[in-house]
Amino acid sequence: MRITSVEAIPLEAPLEKLVNRARQTVPLKARRSLLVRITTDEGLVGLGEGLTPVAPEAAAKVVERVLAPFLIGRDPLDSEPIWEKLYATNSSRGYSRGYQMIAISAVDIALWDLKGLILGQPVYRLLGGAFLDRVPVYATGLMIEKETQAILDLAQEYYDQGFRAMKLKIGLDDAQDLETVRTLRRALGPEVRIMVDANGVYDSSTALRIGRRLQELDVFWFEEPTPPEDLAGLARVRAGLDFYVAAGECEYTRFGFRELFLKEAVDVCQPDVARAGGITECRRIAALAQAFNVRYAPHAWGGAVCLAATGHLAASLPNFLICELDRVPNPLRDELTLEPPDFRDGFLHLPDRPGLGLALDEKALERYRLKA
Ligand code: MG
Q1: How far apart are CA 82 and CA 91, in angstroms?
Q2: Ligand 1 centre distance from Cα of residue 20 (Å)
Q3: Closest C-alpha to 29, from 41, 20, 37
């Protein structure tokens, strides 16, 4: 079987309400993503996704101009040699992160989907089988709001939907942030896991000061307390706290994560399968993490394809902890496939169908295709 075409489709779905976070000067007005479709000479179609909240068309160009020429005519079952080939197209020029790696991630996910379709098995079985028959998830969506009550109402909604773990964004106003966590803890009780995400706004001294207060409030993890560029600062924060420090959503490949682990900077690593290098690379990152006794809790901020790939991979990992389930409105997650992701009672349920188990809704695809 041979690959005959590689399509890269930038998507954009406008949002009614802007999405804010601390380290983002411009709030998100739309959800965006890169969809990749790889077709074989026998008519099978694999789906992949690249995480591109901004300018998915840039990653699409990388797929079309840089990667596709190396894919046409290849056997899609050769995902390992293909991955190395795609990485080698530009790594010697320093392009081993950013849009180059997001494009490789999207292609790699599509190849795994194709492999499942060819072999008639769900992706998690091709990865060696599932440790879990359902994937525990936490809700992301308690964003920075002016009114604490709005956060509390949303938290109650998540609780009623079955979530027993949820994540709050902090980083604009220290006193208000701590008060919000305290109020949340009181409202949710001791059983619910509360994660806190600063998106890298603090220096290490401030992060330590805030982190000690969060520790008193029994926060489950402190995510990206320092900027992704400051691994020494992150390691200092981790050394000074007795609860989980999590990071890695901005990191790429096993080579990038190696630095996080060698510097003893995290308890929990958070690669995004649609950014860090696809299923092939994230499996290597997870194995490397296990060797450092680090837990794997995938970042997932993409659409339906990204979430499915995240779930299949997570289920197959021995050091998997919990998976992110983004609850911020995203039509690319909820409308792009004929069946939306199956979330019930705090768990993501994986389809037992071959590949990632997805069927595209072609009308939704056309609705959200980014017009040139
Ligand atoms: Mg985060």
Answers
A1: 14
A2: 13
A3: 20
pLDDT value at position 200?
A: 96
Using alpha carbons, list the distances in angstroms from residue 75 to 278, 279, 296, 329: 18, 18, 31, 37
Instruction: Give me ligand 1 centre to Cα 60, in Å.
Output: 24
Token code pair at residue 47: 């789906």
Q: What does the block give as tokens for 171?
A: 């980083």
Give the model's pLDDT for residue 19.
80
Could you tell me the CA-to-CA distances from 340 to 112, 303, 305, 349 in Å, in that order? 20, 10, 10, 11
Do 308 and 278 meet the contact criterion of CB atoms below 8 Å apart? no
Q: What is the pLDDT of residues 64-113, one digit of tens each?
A: 999 999 999 999 999 999 999 999 999 999 999 999 999 999 999 999 99
Residues in the chain: 372
Q: Can you give the pTM of this predicted structure?
A: 0.97
**Active-site position among 167, 238, 254, 299:** 299
Going from the Cα of 140 to the center of ligand 1, the distance in angstroms, rounded, reads 9
What tokens were used for 65? 């101009």
Ligand 1 centre from 227 Cα, in Å? 11
CB within 8 Å of 231: residues ≥ 6 apart: 259, 260, 263, 265
Element (H, E) at 341: none
Distance (angstroms) between ligand 1 centre and the Cα of 191 equals 22
- Measured in Å, residue 266 CA sits from the centre of ligand 1 at 14
Q: Residue 23 has what pLDDT?
A: 67
CA dist., res. 30 & res. 296, Å (int) = 29
261 three-state secondary structure? helix
Is 312 catalytic? The answer is: no
- Please give the distance, rounded to the nearest whole angstrom, from the Cα atom of residue 223 to the centre of ligand 1: 6
Q: Quick one: CA torsion of 104, 109, 113, 116, rounded to 10 degrees?
A: 100
Helix/strand number for the chain, H first, E second: 14, 13
Alpha-carbon span 68 to 86, nearest angstrom: 9
**Residue ranges of the chain whose pLDDT lies below 50:** none
The pLDDT value given to residue 25: 61
Q: How far apart are CA 316 and CA 10, in angstroms?
A: 29
